[in-house]
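Input (structure):
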């Protein structure tokens, strides 16, 4: 239960925060960003947060004013209005105005529910002490920046922006990127189903949802993936399983293991490089590098700088078959150039049938962990890798990261002498979990 002060009494609110929302309630940041899976309890957490803030606001004039903003009036009335009345039922002197969805406290503070684009427009020119914007992707995409944010200025008000992803080309995703750049004012709470254990849904229900939903729906609604769904994506199921098993995490480098790099070479398009370690029966992908229009010296320097920063050294570099191609002007192959630039041996990975390579990547994904920060772009590339209308792998910006991972899958036996089938799957990760700094 949560307690809040309302002089001269202490009010107990009949709310026990779910573990995944306790950090949110404890945060002291002015702005908070929540991306959570369906049925996580987001709406309840938001309205209780507003109630506590209103109770503890002692200002007399003008009376404190708070807003809960939903995408529609029906959503506000049918669900959150009932929560608001339930969690304030123990507070003396409460008044409710049903027609306006307003709860008025004895000390004059007001919480009002707004629903729909027209209702949000009514906030223009008003002052607010705090606002929670729920299901933000369904709201007016300028609602925060042009309406809510100015309303908070007078009294240094706070805001919570919350929702479930709807792709990476919308204001909700852009707001997350902006929040990541401003940690002094913003705190981000990323709550996929893999982070809530059975506090929200039972394991059996999660597995049933995974069966009944498409891979893209499950990734978006339950795993909080912002990657825009791509028809014919090769690795949707594999990436869902990866995240559901909490194998996208803050993975610390193993200082006892050397690093292997796996490349896809580009000339007029992207060069993509994965950096990973083989630690016993475990594969740890730590970093993804991608750029275009750069020479091989640039990538050699970037890899060396990363290794130095992590206090690691390279074991081997896996390159696709075209590394053997010779430049017409110099007669030197790119393998010759890289051999001169890098101390670890260069391995040429033979060309493989694309379908066999894709299946090899699926096996690799079932046995790997990825650092969430270092591999963020690379994982996005894998999610976007798809077949074209002819049923062949599409050649776009995503294919280079996917092809580099295929180089890793095909080339791993050259370095270790072991096929992927010899590496364990991590459905029950053992000692690796002790090196994980935090599941995301």
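Output (sequence):
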């Amino acid at each position: 239960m949560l307690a809040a002060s309302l002089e001269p009494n202490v009010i107990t609110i009949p709310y026990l925060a779910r573990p995944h929302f306790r950090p949110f309630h404890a945060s002291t940041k002015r702005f908070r960003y929540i991306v959570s899976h369906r049925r996580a309890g987001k709406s309840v957490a938001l309205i209780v947060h507003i109630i506590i803030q209103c109770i503890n606001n002692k200002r007399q004039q003008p009376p404190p004013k708070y807003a809960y903003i939903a995408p529609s009036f029906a959503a506000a009335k049918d669900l959150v209005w009932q929560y608001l009345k339930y969690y304030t039922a123990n507070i003396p002197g409460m008044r409710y105005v049903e027609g306006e969805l307003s709860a008025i406290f004895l000390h004059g503070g007001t919480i009002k529910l707004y629903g729909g684009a027209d209702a949000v427009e009514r906030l223009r020119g008003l002052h607010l002490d705090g606002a929670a914007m729920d299901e933000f992707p369904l709201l007016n995409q300028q609602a925060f920046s042009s309406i809510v944010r100015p309303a908070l200025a007078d009294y240094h008000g706070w805001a919570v922006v919350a929702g479930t992803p709807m792709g990476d080309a919308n204001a909700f995703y852009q707001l997350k990127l902006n929040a990541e750049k401003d940690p002094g004012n913003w705190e981000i709470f990323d709550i996929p189903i893999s982070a809530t254990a059975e506090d929200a849904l039972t394991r059996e229900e999660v597995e049933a949802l995974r069966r009944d939903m498409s891979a893209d729906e499950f990734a978006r609604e339950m795993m909080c993936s912002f990657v825009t769904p791509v028809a014919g994506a090769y690795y949707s199921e594999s990436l869902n399983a990866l995240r559901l098993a909490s194998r996208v995490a803050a993975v610390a480098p193993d200082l006892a293991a050397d690093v292997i790099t796996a490349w896809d070479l580009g000339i007029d398009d992207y060069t993509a490089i994965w950096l990973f370690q083989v630690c016993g029966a475990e594969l740890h992908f730590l970093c993804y590098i991608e750029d275009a229009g750069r020479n091989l010296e640039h990538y050699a320097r970037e890899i060396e700088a990363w290794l130095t920063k992590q206090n690691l050294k390279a074991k081997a570099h896996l390159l696709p078959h075209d590394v053997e191609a010779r430049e017409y002007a110099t007669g030197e192959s790119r393998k010759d150039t890289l051999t001169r630039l890098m101390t670890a041996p260069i391995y040429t990975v033979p060309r493989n049938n694309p379908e066999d390579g894709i299946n090899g990547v699926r096996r690799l994904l079932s046995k790997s962990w990825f650092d969430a920060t270092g591999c963020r772009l690379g994982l996005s590339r894998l999610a976007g890798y798809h077949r074209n209308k002819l049923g062949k792998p599409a050649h776009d910006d995503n294919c280079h990261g996917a092809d580099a991972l295929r180089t890793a899958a095909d080339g791993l036996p050259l370095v270790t002498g072991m096929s992927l089938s010899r590496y364990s799957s991590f459905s029950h990760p053992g000692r690796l979990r002790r090196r994980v700094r935090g599941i995301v």
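Notes: Residues 426-440 have pLDDT under 50 and may be disordered. The domain at 2-195 is CATH 3.40.50.300 (Rossmann fold).
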